[in-house]
């Protein structure tokens, strides 16, 4: 069936050059494939039994399942932690907006007490207390800072420094200008204080 070289040369002379090149390339490809098939048969590895293949597949699936399960557990833990943080601080923007209203209530009560009208003071105190209780129930806590406390730049905001009226107030808080507040563990407004020098 194989053609000898003389017959091939005669056929090539009758064909156009393009066809001749394609034939040479096809023959080279056939030779390479035959060589590879011969080598593949020599190097054949022993076949795994069907049971061994199934065990190997099962082990791969178990490994994949365990990795996926571990990733899912980490995801659940992370999202629940983020959700708790979000719930704790979700009110922060609203609380921060309400703080000036609370300050105004405090100032109004102080001025009303000076007027001497007990009924008016009592009515405003009721509203003030209800407002404070509502904010407290949502997690707002006032920071207790008083005259004579040590100044801490981490939790206090010094707006000015004045000569200390007493020697024991040097380097300490002399006056609290604006009260500070916490929402949970986070400080949402630092207390503004005057320190003594």
TrEMBL record:
Residues 22-35 have a biased composition (Acidic residues). It comes from Salegentibacter mishustinae. Belongs to the GrpE family. Residues 1-21 have a biased composition (Basic and acidic residues). PANTHER family: GRPE PROTEIN, GRPE PROTEIN HOMOLOG, MITOCHONDRIAL. This is Protein GrpE. Its main location: cytoplasm. The gene is grpE. The keyword Mitochondrion does not apply. GO terms for molecular function: adenyl-nucleotide exchange factor activity; protein homodimerization activity; protein-folding chaperone binding; unfolded protein binding. It holds the Pfam family GrpE. Participates actively in the response to hyperosmotic and heat shock by preventing the aggregation of stress-denatured proteins, in association with DnaK and GrpE. It is the nucleotide exchange factor for DnaK and may function as a thermosensor. Unfolded proteins bind initially to DnaJ; upon interaction with the DnaJ-bound protein, DnaK hydrolyzes its bound ATP, resulting in the formation of a stable complex. GrpE releases ADP from DnaK; ATP binding to DnaK triggers the release of the substrate protein, thus completing the reaction cycle. GO terms for cellular component: cytoplasm. Keywords: Chaperone, Cytoplasm, Stress response. It is found in: Cytoplasm. Homodimer. HAMAP family: GrpE (MF_01151). The keyword Cytoplasm applies. GO terms for biological process: protein folding. Residues 1-55 are annotated as: Disordered.
């Amino acid at each position: 069936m194989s053609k000898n070289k003389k017959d091939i040369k005669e056929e090539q002379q009758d064909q156009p050059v393009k066809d001749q090149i394609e034939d040479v390339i096809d023959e080279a490809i056939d030779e390479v494939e035959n060589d590879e098939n011969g080598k593949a048969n020599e190097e054949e590895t022993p076949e795994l039994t069907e049971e061994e293949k199934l065990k190997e597949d099962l082990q791969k699936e178990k490994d994949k399942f365990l990795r996926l399960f571990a990733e899912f557990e980490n995801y659940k833990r992370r999202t629940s932690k983020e959700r708790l943080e979000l719930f704790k601080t979700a009110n922060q923007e609203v609380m921060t907006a309400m703080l000036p209203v609370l300050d105004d209530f405090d100032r109004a009560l102080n001025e009303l007490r000076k007027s001497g009208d007990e009924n008016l003071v009592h009515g405003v105190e009721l509203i003030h207390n209800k407002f404070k209780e509502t904010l407290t129930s949502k997690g707002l806590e006032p920071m207790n800072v008083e005259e004579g406390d040590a100044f801490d730049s981490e939790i206090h905001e010094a707006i000015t420094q004045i000569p200390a009226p007493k020697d024991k107030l040097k380097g300490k808080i002399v006056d609290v200008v604006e009260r500070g507040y916490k929402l949970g563990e986070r400080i949402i407004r630092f207390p503004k204080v005057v320190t003594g020098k």
